[in-house]
Design a protein that fits this description.
Blueprint (H helix, E strand, L loop, with lengths): L1 H25 L8 H6 L4 H4 L4 H13 L5 H16 L2 H16 L2 H20 L14 H5 L12
């Protein structure tokens, strides 16, 4: 009887150990990442241990593809990771929501938006740097989205 109980306990220990190993594989802490993964994902190091396992897997997939990216793609990814790390949780949620809305648009509307964005970037790249201007008043996004006219603000306010 004692042998049987010992065998069951040992089996449970093996199953639990395997389960924990699988959990750590799918939800690694920052210290469990390889040096290369840490170097690639450095901009989000401060956020890493707060991420859900699904998001960690996404970032690990990106880190795996990173060495095959062109240098300009790597640079763009690093810049976007740094920007993402500075966002508040509310800003991140809003960005994800906007992305989901974009993905739900019909293909032709998405392409039209991409084309407009590319045109905007090209125009910005060809413009000469202008002298600094006074900051324009900030218009609440909710008013412009709702189609309301923003309130008039004088520069002296």
């Amino acid at each position: 009887m004692a042998k049987a109980l010992l065998g069951i306990a040992f089996s449970l220990l093996l199953v639990t150990s395997a389960s924990l190993a699988e959990t750590n594989k799918n939800n690694p802490s920052w210290s469990q990442l390889t040096a290369e993964q840490q170097k690639i994902l450095a901009p989000i190091q401060g956020e890493w241990n707060k991420l859900e396992p699904m998001r960690k897997r996404k970032w690990l997939g990106i880190a795996q593809r990173y060495p095959k990216m062109k240098p300009e793609e790597q640079e763009r990814l690093q810049k976007r990771m740094r920007e993402w790390a500075t966002l508040t949780p509310e800003q991140r949620r809003a960005a994800r929501d906007k992305y989901r809305e974009f993905e739900l648009l019909p293909q032709d509307e998405r392409q039209a938006m991409r084309d407009k964005w590319d045109q905007y970037k090209q125009e910005r790249a060809t413009q000469e740097p202008s002298k600094p201007q006074e900051a324009a008043p900030v218009t609440p996004v909710s008013r412009t989205i709702a189609g309301e006219k923003p309130p008039a603000v004088s520069p002296n306010q």
